[in-house]
Amino acid sequence: MTTNIIGTRIKALREERKLSQDDLARLFGFKDRQTVSAIETGERRVSAEELLIAVDKLGKPLDYFTDPFLLVGEGRFSWRQTDVGPQRLTAYENSAGRWIAAFRGIAPQVGRATPLLRRSLGLTRRFEDAMEAGERFAVEFKLGDVPATRLIDVMERELGILVLMVDAFQGISGAACRLPELDVVLINRHEVEGRRHFDLGHELFHILTWDVMPPEHSEESRETGGNRVEQLANNFASAVLMPVPVLDRFGDWSDLCESKLAARLNTVADELQVTASALKWRLIALDRLKPAIARTVSDAALRNNGRRAPAAGTPPLLFSKPFMEVIARAVDEGRVSARRAAGLLDVTIDDLAELFAAHGVEPPFDL
């Protein structure tokens, strides 16, 4: 975890308020902006008196500057959302930041080190490159006949990405978060199964390409369209979930009439645990389905993979087993109280105990 929490948060607040370093120097009574620069970069510590000045002059509580379980000025998010206003998105981002900061701060204390190296994709902005990278990913990580079923495990165990299933506002489907020492993917666990898997692949692309093509902070969730980077992410996700060798099992698609084509798209999509719409666009991209033929199938015929309503099913458990293992160990070792842990996760103590049990995690002694 960064050792310069206070300096990082002073900088974040200064930039949020659109203040210059000279402005902040005058506020603190420093002779020049170099002192502010040294504080923000961690070259100079903030004294107790200066911290009280920050609380008074910047109008934030002491915890804002010192609480390790906040994510202020450190994490960069990219959200997939539809019609979620900026204020609601910011409020939810603050909540998500607490979960991520809790893991980031606690994991090293209980012996779970963050990955030493990060994987990355060096891609051009050609759609063909993104699709080829997705194909190679599915092969090299042995995702098998139904790649969707293995994707989370590979992201967690092979790539060291923290994947959290979360309760989110309607309209938020997923997010990627980049920290200096940690990558995180958030998925709305109440989305339909195929959408969850597509969002996983989409956010994985952002994690792997963040440095060379950083994503927008907020982008409308869709399987086609969007800006160039979002389109590349969609192509990558489609190839990961529906690689050519997997699609080869289902033969030719070109000679089916409208009703049979819709039925087959829905059936194969169910088998691959994707949406029928994503499958249709993947086949078009591979020239296995001509656009003119694809247009004969209405969106309504593919909605919910041909069902009147989303398929009934239990959503994935909240958060993840690796996440809950870290929280349980921290409580058991006395590094954080059960009450504090429950507060960080926005659940009651009873809910926390049930979460441990549901994930098969041995509960801490005091629960």
Describe this protein's structure.
The chain folds into four domains: 5-66, Orthogonal Bundle (434 Repressor (Amino-terminal Domain)); 76-240, no CATH class; 244-306, no CATH class; 321-358, no CATH class. Helix content is 50%, strand content 7%. It is built from 18 helices and five strands. The chain has helices at residues 5-16, 21-28, 33-41, 48-58, 62-66, 86-106, 127-140, 151-158, 193-209, 228-241, 244-247, 258-272, 276-285, 291-294, 299-302, 321-332, 338-344, 349-358, and strands at residues 76-81, 162-166, 172-178, 183-188, 218-220. It has a five-stranded mixed β-sheet, sandwiched between helices. Strand 3 (172-178) and strand 4 (183-188) form a beta hairpin. The longest helix is centred in the first third of the chain and has 21 residues, at 86-106. 38% of the residues are buried. The model has no long low-confidence stretch (mean pLDDT 92).
Low-pLDDT runs: none
Q: DSSP strand (E) fraction?
A: 5-15%
What is the chain-wise order of helices and strands?
A: HHHHHEHHHEEEHEHHHHHHHHH
Question: Structural class, please?
Answer: alpha/beta
Q: What proportion of the residues is helical, as a percent range?
A: 40-55%
